[in-house]
Amino acid sequence: MKAPAPAAASLAPPKLELRGICKSFPGVRALDDVSLAIWPGETHMLLGENGAGKSTLIKVLFGAVAADAGEIVFKGKPVKIASPADARALGIAVIFQDFSLVPYLDIAQNIFLGRAFPGRVPGSIDRARLYREAKRVLDMIGFAIDPRESVHRLGVAQQQMVEIAKALSQDARILVMDEPTAALSDRESEQLFAVMARLKADGVAIVYISHRMAEVFRLGDRITVLRDGRRIRSLLPREASPDELVRLMVGRSVDMTYPRQFHAPGEVILDVRGLSAHTGIADINLQVRAREIVGLCGLIGSGRTEVARAIFGADPIASGQVRVFGRIHPGGPEMAVRLGVSLIPESRKAEGLALIRTVGDNLVLAGLPKLFRSGLFRPRAARAAAAAIVRKLGIAAVSLQQVVGTLSGGNQQKVVIGKWLAAEARLFIFDEPTRGIDIGAKAQIFALINELVAAGAGVLMISSEQAEIAHVCDRAYVMRERRIVGELDRASLSEENIVRLGMQQ
Amino acid sequence: MTALALKPRRVLRAPGLLAILAAILVGFALGARDFTTAANLTNIALQSSVLLLLALPMTFVVMTEGLDLSIGAVLSLASVVLAQVVVATGSVSLAVAAGLTVGAALGAVNGILIAFVRIPPFVATLGMLGIAQGLALIVSDGQSITGIPPSVDFVYEGRVLGAPLPILLMIAAYLLMHALLYRTRFGTYVIALGGNREALALAGVNWRVMLILVYALAGACAGFAGLLLTARLNAGHPTAGVGMEFDAIAAVALGGTSFEKGNGWLPGTLLGVLTIGVLHNGLNLLTIPSALQVCCIGLLVILIFLFEALRKETP
After folding, report:
1. Measured between CB atoms, does A82 come within 8 Å of chain B?
2. Which residue among A84, A109, A127 places its CB closest to the CB of B202?
3. How far is A100 from chain B (nearest CA, A)?
4. Same domain, residue pair A336 and A359
5. Out of A102, A114, A125, whose CB is closest to B195?
6. What SS3 string covers chain B?
7. Chain A contact for B203, CB < 8 A?
8. Which residue segment(s) compose the domain that A381 sits in?
9. Would you tell me which residues 126-165 of chain A have a C-beta closer than 8 angstroms to some C-beta of chain B?
10. Cα nearest neighbour of B199 on chain A
């Protein structure tokens, strides 16, 4: 399938075209027949929610991920991009969000990493030339800094500039930037935009991923919206409005068959006031009542997980107060568990489960102090407690002796929840409870969360699936740039409203 | 233009170590008889030569976020192989080549296990420690190999232009390794291996080969150190290198090289080696048993770490 070229650009052929790109990972269709055309001297904005396929598309373009199907056409000729080296040879450079800089090398060495100028002695570096060339590239983007400065001394914005210098030093003609302003101040962003304007005038094609609506309209010459791995539409800024773009980004057809009963909320069991932590979150205020499911949403990196960790006591609090069940949480996960709080982390494998241990072992792990107040471990009692939870949650395990790592994702998630049931928790904080599990298991997880709530517990749920939040939650808080920027009650809780609040206007 | 590593702010990298080294020197000068004689100070340098040859490449290894536990055992093996060859053939150059080859080969095997088989450095080199130590005992039949010709002894006892040869070798080794780390592409890659391996891969550098070269370099240096050790002992001894990996890693740690992110400092390793040399020597003069000396070095490593951690937290 050919990318339909909008009328304005049909005069010149595109510099680079992706046609019908498909890519699947186990269980996920990351890209499904995506086409994209890039013209020289243009900025092409790539929009989409978390998981829409933007990152995978960039990786295909850069040869870091091989597409299952589709072709790449460069200046009218089909090309293979099998490695980053191939991409570079075509003049494609990518500035990833997590920088590809070496902290204890200086700026010049980072810019020319792997391409240093040979000196007279074999293997040596022509340092005079190295620093001269580095200076030249840095001057090009108007970044006044000593190229001898070690990168680990630089701030995030300065590192961003070094990344750009690095890309330009490779004579990049197609520059891909993944949320470049995410870590920049307004002034630094302006500086970056000035550099971009200069590059555009010079005929460089820019692909720009952003979650900031203002940037989309200010910088974009062309906009492509991705959703669920498919290209929804390519359009020109004058054809679009912010509302229209939001509508294109959402509208995900999620199976909404999980049952949800709403209960009259009880007393406030979690009361967070003016919470700030060194992880960057600031002035967080939120409440969760008994028998209530409260969503915490926002883009990845907006600070949701940091809020959860600070509430739980896993990260120290800089200021503010967390009250659970009317008592001040003094900090520390041990105290949280004792107060009846549980955190079901995003990375089950890393934080939530001992994968190589058995189902039985994992289930009683957090509940040990409650199950065995004397401090002595009684295997029979532990087995009985674990067996009760397996029955209650319907965990599909052959026996308590089955190793957790061999269970399906949904059943692993149930074990994590069961672990906290054994610990007699009454406030549950879920971080992405449905990530990486199939639809059937999702329905079971939500049924379980419903049961917890019906039994009087409170739930705070982080999720990137806005549709799920909108469907399941009583209320939701939306975060942006490490602050809560809005609260949506049941009546106003919709996917569109979550996305609108989550993006900077 | 002289952007050498010894910029003023860089010297402050290891203030704790400098202070302690100064305190130890003053302490021994006051407390131990004959410590400050020229003969003794020369002796310290001589005794440090083998350790320096191990600690310099160990710094490279640690900067790649790795570790080489086998370096002491490889040193022993290289020493007995060298001794066997020189006793059997009489050819010094053949013997030195054999020692270097054995060291470089075992180091390369370490590197391959780590880079390609993806065995953690700790495990791979721990296994190699056992293998090399066992081989050293087998090659030598568990005995010291004597009958080393005087031409080998010259390496340790000889003088060139009035200066003891091992000290000249030390200086040469340091300058060579310093240039290698801070002046060549390979050195840049060493720093990047620990700092951001992904960046190196994206830059189109074959990082696995570079990692293998780092471990092979460590092995080759151990092989060369085997020559100095054999010359010093006037024999090849299968357990002479036991525990040397501890001293080498301790010297690196004392010198302020971090075990993370490629944050290393080669001049610091030189200081670390000298500190350990001075400590051994002074404690010997004070007739402190060697077991207790090992304790002292261990304690020093921990103290320096605490000191640096404290300093970082209170800017």
Report:
1. no
2. A84
3. 5
4. no
5. A102
6. CCCCCCCHHHHCCCHHHHHHHHHHHHHHHHHCCCCCCHHHHHHHHHHHHHHHHHHHHHHHHHHCCCCCCCHHHHHHHHHHHHHHHHHHHCCHHHHHHHHHHHHHHHHHHHHHHHHCCCCCHHHHHHHHHHHHHHHHHHHHCCCCECCCCHHHHHHHHCEECCEEHHHHHHHHHHHHHHHHHHHEHHHHHHHHHHHCHHHHHHCCCCHHHHHHHHHHHHHHHHHHHHHHHHHHHCCECCCCCCCHHHHHHHHHHHCCCCCCCCCCCHHHHHHHHHHHHHHHHHHHHCCCCHHHHHHHHHHHHHHHHHHHHHHHHCC
7. yes
8. 348-425
9. 127, 148, 152
10. A100
For B284, the token pair is 């010997």
Instruction: Using an 8 Å CB-CB cutoff, list chain B residues near A132.
Output: none
Largest CA distance in chain A: 81
Determine, yes or no, domain membership for B1. Answer: no
Q: Are A437 and A381 members of one domain?
A: no
Nearest-neighbour CA in chain A from B200: distance (Å): 7
Contacts of B186 in chain A (CB under 8 A): 123
* CATH classification of the domain holding A80: 3.40.50.300
pLDDT in tens, B148-207: 888 888 888 888 888 889 999 999 999 999 999 999 999 999 999 998 888 888 787 899
Task: Tell me: do A279 and A232 sit in the same domain.
Answer: no
Q: Which residues of A touch B184 (CB under 8 A)?
A: 123-125
Rounded Cα–Cα distance for residues B3 and A234 (Å):
51
**CB distance from A115 to chain B under 8 Å?**
yes
Predicted model pTM: 0.72
Residue A405 lies in a domain: yes
Q: Does A100 touch chain B (CB under 8 A)?
A: yes
pLDDT (0 to 100) of residue A352 = 63
Tell which of B202, B205, B209, B217 to mutate to test the A interface (max A CBs under 10 Å): B202
Residue with tokens 């990493």: A113
Q: CA–CA separation, B236 vs B81, rounded Å?
A: 8
Same domain, A278 and A238: no
- Residues from chain A that touch B185, judged by Cβ atoms under 8 A, are 116, 118, 123-125
Classify residue A107: in a domain, yes or no.
no
Which of A108-117, A297-306, B91-100, B218-227 bottoms out in mean pLDDT, i.e. has the lowest?
A297-306
| pLDDT score of A42 | 92
Tell me whether A125 touches chain B (CB under 8 Å).
Answer: yes
The total number of structural domains that make up chain B: 1
Instruction: Residue B173: give the domain boundaries.
Output: 12-313
B179, closest residue in chain A (CA to CA): A124
Q: Does B313 touch chain A (CB under 8 A)?
A: no
B260 touches chain A (CB under 8 A): no
Question: Distance (Å, rounded) from C-alpha A93 to C-alpha A175?
Answer: 5
Domain boundary among A229, A253, A277: A253
Which among B186, B196, B261 has CB closest to A100? B196
Chain A hits for B262, CB-CB cut-off 8 Å, are 102-104
Report residues of chain B scoring pLDDT below 50: 1-11, 314-315
ipTM of the complex model: 0.82
A486-503 pLDDT tens trace: 999 988 888 888 888 887
Assigned domain for A162 exists: no
Q: Are B262 and A103 within 8 A, CB to CB? A: yes
Same domain, A357 and A475: no
Are A100 and B205 an interchain contact pair (Cβ–Cβ within 8 Å)? Answer: no
- Taking the Cβ of residue B205 and every Cβ of chain A, the question of whether any pair is shorter than 8 Å is answered with yes
Reply yes or no on whether the pLDDT at A505 is more than 80: no
Count of domains observed in chain A? 3
